[in-house]
Every structure is written in C-alpha cells, then in structure tokens.
Predict the structure.
Amino acid sequence: MAGNLFFVVCALVALVGALGTVTSHNPIRSAVGLLATILGIAGLFLKLDAQFLAAIQLMVYAGAVVVLFVFVIMVLGPDARTDVEAGKAQISRAFAGGLMALLAAGALFLLAKGGPTPTVFAKAMPGHGDVEAVGGQLFTQGIVPFELATALLIAAAIGAIAIARGKAVRVDKPRALPKGKYFGGPAHPRDVAAQVDTGVRKDGAH
Amino acid sequence: MNLLGNVLEHYVMLSGLIFSIGAVGFLVRRNVLVQLMCIELMLNSVNLALVAYNRVHVGNMTGNVFAFFVIAVAAAEAAVGLAIVIAFYRLRSSVQSDEADALRH
C-alpha cells in the first residue's frame, strides 16, 4: 500500500513539475519545475528497482544539468525572462501545439484502452538494477558505446568551452592611470591586456 | 487499486504524458532556455519508459544500460546547448528562438 502511495506521489510531482516547466514565464521557475520532474522520475526509478539509475539521475540531472541551467539563467539576468508573443507566429504555434496535444491524447487513449490484461510486474530478482547488474552488462555488451560516450563527453566539454568563451572585448580608450601611483614605470598589466585587438566589436554586430 | 504502480502501462502512460507536455512546450514556447528544458523533459520521459519496460524482463539490464547512455548524451547536449544559448545571446542580446534568423535574410 505504501508502494502505491509512493508511485502516486512521485507521478504527481513529475507531472506538476513538467506542467510548471512549460507554463511558467520565469525561467527560474521552469528550472525548478524541471528539478521536480527529475526528482519524481528518480523516485519512480527506485520503485522500478533501478537503484543505480536513480542515483545517476540525481547526480547528473539534479546535480549538474539543472545547476547549469540555473547558472546560465543567472548569467543572462533579466533578459532570460523575455518571451515575446508575435501575432502571426502565435497562431501557427498554437495550431502546432494543439495538433501535438491532440495526437498525444489519442495515443494515450489507445494505450489506456490497451490490451485485455495489464502487464503486472513479477517479483524482481535480487540485485535487479543495482550497480553490479548494470555494471556487468555495461562492461561486457556495452563496452564499445561506453568508451565512445567518454569521447562524446570530452568533445562536448571542449566544444561547450570553445562556443561559450567570449573573446576579450576591445576597449577603445584605455583608462587613465592614477597620477603618481606608478612613478612612470611600465603600464599596469590591466591596461596592456585591454588594448589587445581581437576584431570583435563591442556592440556585437556581425 | 493495489496494482497502482505495479503495472507496466501506468509507467508508459505517465511517460507518454510527460513526453507530450515536453513536445507541446517545445513547439509553443519561444524562450530557448525553456525549449532546452522541454528537451530534457522528453529525454527523461523516454528514460522512464525504458526502465519500466526493462522491469518486465527480469535478469536483463539492457534497458537500464540504454537509459544510462541517454543520460550521458543528454548531459553533453545540455552543456553544448547552453553554450550555444550564451553565444547566441552575445550575438543578438536575446534568447528568443525567433531571433535566430541570420540564414533567412
């Protein structure tokens, strides 16, 4: 009985979080909704005897991805909020969304009508979904994609740095040095660095 | 009522619901950050379906291993996607996906 309650609570948390992600106008609230969905799904993983994946879900999604989202929202500041509604695009957008929702509702209705008998889970074997079982399959059948995933992750990390790293902005007029502080010695490193021309204009035109 | 949460179809329906919410959100919203979050919603719902189907086949972990790879790819996708959002914001001072029309004009 407690298991049923656990399922209902986790499913509700996940659903409400998903709805909050989509409907909220503040991206921070969307990120919190995404976090709720992730926590709910991690709980459902536990209910499905996938302890290893529940832990990975919490570490990777709740610990890294959501934090990264929040970090970017903080970097962008108030500009992250804007969600302008264009007149003409709004109609086609609502049409596409409505069509998608209709198709999904139809598919879910067919699924709910479903087969004659529901597929009830058998009792899990001891050790189903723990680190040993998943790791055993991961390092035998899945060793090639596992190694390829490491290459993907390092490529993604380097690529993300290369894309997001801003070039130094050219400062046209170096700031005047305070008189008498440096006694006519070499320029402050700050002002030497500011004069490096990277060819990128500050207004972001292209 | 005692079956609630012990039946495969419940998990698949929940997964479909979350996937639909994510897909509709991706189509309707124009904030790139929210669209990326909707992609994460869809990937999460697929993971839920994979693990639920894996639960039916006791003694086989393929679904869990597949969900593990989906999580790895989703993390890489989020990192690169958010880097692109920052580069795009630097270019246009906006996070509206409608603004990304440099190849149209």
Summary: The helical segments of chain B are 8-28, 32-56, 62-92. DSSP finds three helices and no strands in chain B. Chain B touches chain A through 81 residues (CB under 8 Å).
